[in-house]
Amino acid sequence: MRYDLVIFDNDGVLVDSEPISNRLLAAYLTELGHPTSYEDSIRDYMGSAMHRIHELILERTGQRLPAEFDEVFHARVFAAFERELQPVAGVDGVLEKLAADGVPYCVASSGSHARIRVGHRTTGLDRWFTEERVFSSEDVGRGKPAPDLFLYAAERMGVAPGRCVVVEDSPLGVQAAVAAGMDVYGFTAMTPAERLAGAGRLFSDMGELADLLV
């Protein structure tokens, strides 16, 4: 293994949540008077921490989202996760191989700890991610594309940034990994490869990742 730590993004990399959450986000923003298509949501908000959604809406419209926005959105997302969420195809095999080989890994997500936990419990991935392997943008002051979250995860895991590789599927996540001084592999199952151009390696099938890492 060429790396001492593999850092996974969560949404779209471990759990197949992006179609669900972006469908619901587009619908909720439209409901609030900010017309947003599913494609708009993927382009503008995929990989974002919640604060970035608030900032972009304020910047574009001069209006603030309601105080209860995060609470209502998360309630809708969590309910949909319980009904629909699946793990990304092939990710169990990757995690099994990393664990068998003794390679440290963790998750560093723009989502809240509650969102990560709901997704992992629903899909069975919680067996791979004990509490000390889970990091959220809630743990740092700035979410992606700032490097803070990835640097925090590496520090907590006791690994130098240059010995880490990040697995990401969003442009914001790729930017954050590059800014953190880490290698990054871009997962193109949902995101066009050209939008992940900053990644050192690109792959479209999660089953390929274990072989790419060695």
Give the helix/strand layout.
Layout: E1 5-8, H1 18-31, H2 38-45, H3 50-61, H4 69-84, H5 91-101, E2 105-109, H6 113-123, E3 134-136, H7 148-157, E4 164-168, H8 171-179, E5 183-187, E6 201-203, H9 209-213
Parallel strand pairs: 1-2, 1-4, 2-3, 4-5, 5-6
Radius of gyration: 16 Å
Query: What is the typical, i.e. mean, pLDDT?
Result: 95
Taking pLDDT < 50 over at least 5 consecutive residues as the criterion, the unreliable ranges are none
| Structural shape | globular
Structure description:
The protein is an alpha/beta fold and 214 residues long. The protein contains 9 helices and 6 strands. It has a 6-stranded parallel β-sheet, sandwiched between helices. Helix 4 (69-84) runs parallel beside helix 6. The chain is globular. The protein starts with a strand and ends with a helix. The relative contact order is 0.18. The model has no long low-confidence stretch (mean pLDDT 95).
